[in-house]
Design a protein that fits this description.
Elements lengths: L2 H17 L4 H12 L3 H17 L1 H11 L1 H15 L3 H7 L2 H15 L2 H12 L4 H16 L2 H12 L1 H16 L21 H5 L5 H28 L4 H29 L1 H21 L3 H29 L6 H14 L3 H13 L1 H19 L12 H13 L1
Helix pairs in contact: 1-8, 1-9, 1-11, 2-10, 2-13, 2-14, 3-7, 3-17, 3-18, 4-5, 4-8, 4-17, 5-7, 5-8, 5-11, 6-7, 6-11, 8-17, 9-14, 9-16, 10-11, 10-14, 13-14, 13-17, 13-18, 13-19, 14-15, 14-16, 15-16, 15-19, 18-19
Length: about 400
C-alpha cells in the first residue's frame, strides 16, 4: 500500500501507544483512593513504569532494525494490549502490586514503538522528514486527545480497570493491521548491519541534543502525570473538568504537531525548538502566576499544548539528520530512553514535594527544568544533511582520496 496509508497506520498505533498512559491522570484520584496510596507512592510506581517505557526503547530501536518495523510494532500492540487486563486483578484485590505489574508490562511492550516508528519515518519520508514526523504526531494526538475524557467516563461509571481494558482491546484488534496481509512491509535494509546502542552514543553531534532531551523529559513527565490532580488540589477544579482540561492540552497538540513539522522544514529545526521551548516556559509561568485561575489555566492549555507538541517533530527530524541511517533505530531508542526513562525521575520528586508542600512547589521545579531546556535550545546544532551510514562514509572517504 502507499505511503499515506502507512503513515495513517503509524498515526493510529501512535495514538494507542500514548492512550495507554493518559488513562491514569484523569482517574488518578479514584485510583489512589481505591488503592489507598499517597502521591509519593503513585509517583514511584509511575516513575518505574515510565523508566521501563524509556529503557525498553534501547531494545526497541535495534529490534526494529533487526526484525523489521511492522513486526516490532505488532509485538508492542499485542503485549501491551493483553497486559491491560491485569488491571482487573488490581481493582478486585485493591492491590498496588497488581496495578504496578500491569503498568510496567504495558510500558515494556509500548517502549518498542517510538524508536521503531521514528526510524521508519526518517527512512521512508526523507524529503519531508519534519512534516512527516508532524503528521505522524497529529495522527497520534488526534486519537489520544479524547482518551482522558473517555477514560474518565468509562472509569467513573464502570470502574477504572474497564477503562484500561477498553484501550487494551483496541490495541489487540489493531495489531492485525500490521501484518503483511495488509501491505505494511518492513523497511529494513537486508544488507545493512544494525547499529548498537554503544555506537549510537559515540555520535558526538548528538550529545548536546541528548542533554536537551533529558531536560525536556524532566518537566514533561511531571506535568503529564500530575496536571489534572494539580487543578483539583490547587485550583479547586472539579475532577471531570480537570480531565477535560487535560484533554484540551492534547487537543491543542494537534495543530502544534503540524505547525512544528511545517515550520521546522521551512525555518530549520533549531529555530523551531527555540520558539517551542520559549512557549512552554510561558505556559508554565501562566499556570503558576496569573492570579485569575481560569485565565492562567486557559493560557497554559493553549501555550503548553501547542508548543510542547510542536517541539517533537523538530527534535525527531534533527535527530535523524544527525544520525547514520544504519544506526537510526538505536539512536531513537537512546533519545526515547533519556526523555521518558530518565525524565520519569521527576514524577517521584514531584510526588514527594506535593506530599510535603503541595503541588505549587512541585510545578515550580518543573518550570525550572523548562527554562534549562530553553537555554540549551540556543546551543543546539543547525539542521544538516542526513548522516551517512558507516559504510557510505568509508566509500566517500575512499572516493575523495582517489581524486
Amino acid at each position: 500500500m502507499g505511503k499515506d496509508f502507512r503513515l495513517l497506520l503509524l498515526g493510529a498505533a501512535h495514538s494507542l501507544n500514548h492512550s495507554l498512559f493518559v488513562i491514569v491522570p484523569p482517574l488518578l484520584s479514584v485510583i489512589m483512593a481505591d488503592l489507598s496510596v499517597s502521591n509519593k507512592v503513585i509517583g514511584t510506581v509511575s516513575m518505574a513504569a515510565s523508566f521501563i517505557y524509556g529503557f525498553g526503547a534501547l531494545a526497541g530501536g535495534p529490534l526494529g532494525d533487526k526484525i523489521g518495523e511492522a513486526k516490532t510494532i505488532t509485538i508492542f500492540l499485542l503485549f501491551s494490549g493483553f497486559s491491560t487486563f491485569i488491571m482487573f486483578a488490581a481493582g478486585a484485590t485493591k492491590s498496588l502490586t497488581f496495578f504496578a505489574l500491569a503498568l510496567i508490562l504495558m510500558a515494556a511492550g509500548s517502549s518498542l514503538y517510538h524508536p521503531t516508528a521514528n526510524s521508519l519515518i526518517s527512512k521512508t519520508f526523507s524529503e519531508h522528514v519534519s512534516e512527516s514526523m508532524g503528521l505522524h504526531g497529529v495522527g497520534g494526538t488526534v486519537g489520544v486527545v479524547l482518551t482522558p475524557t473517555i477514560a474518565w467516563f468509562i472509569g467513573s461509571s464502570l470502574g477504572w480497570p474497564v477503562a484500561f481494558a477498553f484501550f487494551g482491546s483496541l490495541c489487540i484488534i489493531f495489531a492485525f493491521l500490521f501484518t503483511k496481509k495488509f501491505g505494511f512491509k518492513s523497511h529494513r535494509g537486508k544488507r545493512q548491519a544494525a547499529g548498537s546502542i554503544v555506537e549510537a552514543l559515540q555520535i558526538r553531534e548528538l550529545w548536546l541534543l541528548l542533554v536537551f532531551n533529558i531536560a525536556i523529559g524532566f518537566f514533561m513527565k511531571g506535568v503529564e502525570l500530575y496536571f489534572p490532580k494539580y487543578l483539583e488540589d490547587n485550583r479547586a477544579v472539579n475532577p471531570m473538568w480537570a480531565s477535560v482540561a487535560y484533554t484540551l492540552v492534547l487537543a491543542f497538540g494537534v495543530p502544534g504537531q503540524w505547525i512544528g513539522g511545517k515550520c521546522s522544514d521551512k525555518y530549520g529545526s533549531k529555530k523551531m525548538l527555540i520558539v517551542a521551548s520559549a512557549g512552554i516556559c510561558l505556559g508554565l509561568l501562566s499556570l503558576l502566576f496569573i492570579p485569575v485561575y481560569l485565565i492562567g489555566i486557559s493560557v497554559f492549555i493553549v501555550l503548553y499544548g501547542v508548543f510542547f507538541y510542536a517541539h517533537q517533530p523538530a527534535l525527531n527530524a534533527l535527530t535523524g539528520f544527525l544520525s547514520p541511517e544504519t544506526h537510526r533505530g538505536a539512536v531513537y531508542g537512546v533519545f526515547f530512553f533519556t526523555s521518558f526513562g530518565i525524565g520519569s525521575i521527576s514524577q517521584l520528586i514531584s510526588g514527594y514535594l506535593a506530599d510535603l508542600y503541595g503541588f505549587d512547589p512541585a510545578f515550580y521545579m518543573l518550570t525550572v527544568f523548562s527554562f534549562i531546556a530553553l537555554g540549551l535550545s540556543f546551543l543546539l546544532p543547525e539542521r544538516q544533511k542526513p548522516a551517512l551510514s558507516h559504510n557510505k562514509r568509508e566509500k566517500s572517504v575512499s572516493h575523495s582520496s582517489n581524486e
